[in-house]
């Protein structure tokens, strides 16, 4: 089972995937409370599907761009879980993940996320058969 962790923005997201697709997901406004909320939410999500951390086989985590503190919390937790469970860890670029949902598209895609302090991040993606 794959656990995906996204802490790049004030909206934190978790998802569990099995061999046949999504099992459960949770998205909430964490603001600046990623540290206090992330582990309890992972526990709740695992319990919801009747799983334990021992059932995880791979982890995925957002790499940013995004909130520096949020990314640090998500990456640290994912790295710690990967080391403790001897699990593979996959890093996913936040903007690339947002662009991927528009595959395929004849036009460039410009995903946009708010970084905070009146700053934003974007990048062009040519989405045809794969991201370029």
TrEMBL record:
It holds the Pfam family TsaD. InterPro entries: ATPase_NBD, Gcp-like_dom, T6A_TsaB. Gene3D superfamilies: 3.30.420.40. Signal peptide: none annotated. One of its GO terms (cellular component) is cytosol. One of its GO terms (molecular function) is transferase activity. Keywords: Transferase. Residues 31-113 form the Gcp-like domain. One of its GO terms (biological process) is tRNA threonylcarbamoyladenosine modification. PANTHER family: TRNA N6-ADENOSINE THREONYLCARBAMOYLTRANSFERASE, TRNA THREONYLCARBAMOYLADENOSINE BIOSYNTHESIS PROTEIN TSAB. This is tRNA (Adenosine(37)-N6)-threonylcarbamoyltransferase complex dimerization subunit type 1 TsaB. It comes from Chloroflexus aggregans. The lineage of its organism: Bacteria, Bacillati, Chloroflexota, Chloroflexia, Chloroflexales.
